[in-house]
Amino acid sequence: MSLRLVVFDVDGTLVDSQGQIHQAMEDAFAALGLTAPDRAAVRGIIGLSLPQAMAVLAPDASEDTQARLVAAYKEAYFTRRTQGGAEAASPLYPGARMALEALAKDEEVLLAVATGKSRRGLEHLLEAHDLRRFFISTQVADDHPSKPHPSMLWQVLSETGVAADAGVMLGDTSFDMEMGRAAGLSSLGVSWGYHPAQALRDHGAVEVLPDFGALMPALNTIWRMS
What we know:
Layout: E1 4-8, H1 18-31, H2 39-45, H3 50-57, H4 63-84, H5 86-89, H6 96-104, E2 109-114, H7 119-129, E3 137-139, H8 151-160, E4 167-171, H9 174-183, E5 186-190, H10 197-202, E6 205-209, H11 215-225
Parallel strand pairs: 1-2, 1-4, 2-3, 4-5, 5-6
């Protein structure tokens, strides 16, 4: 049996969490008496690990202030998630569950996650949406360098034993596309996330999907060519 692999980003790919992220970012900057970045700037950093994100959003702040922003963001995100619930605050995109269920039925296909979320944040979201059962490997920002470093994908390949050229990285940001390419996986972009489709193509996407219904045909095309 020749195993194949699909690695999913989370925010902007499986779930629409931008509202919750924007609100928590505004809370974090307000807690330190700083002016919050605009929504376009926040969308641009989604996918990065928090220290790297804060370095981009507050480049003139000291390292100590950036670290305090990270802590304030985590507290704000946790508070808002507790109040509103992950399922409501970060809903699944249309077709996401159906695509996961279809892929999970194929014994030759393994599914994994590579996300800039923390372990606590990812586990809460997987539980809220009943998604944990789909994924054989889940890689988070706590344990790796920030995307686009390929460390997360190297770990997934190590855990699953799948060859890199039989793997596909699915994501919505240029960081995901670059990470996939750096690890030797094919990168598929999604049009419903947080970075423009052209940016995904410019950073290595072999295709940008219009919806989850296009995922299986795209995967079959990639795997036929590998």
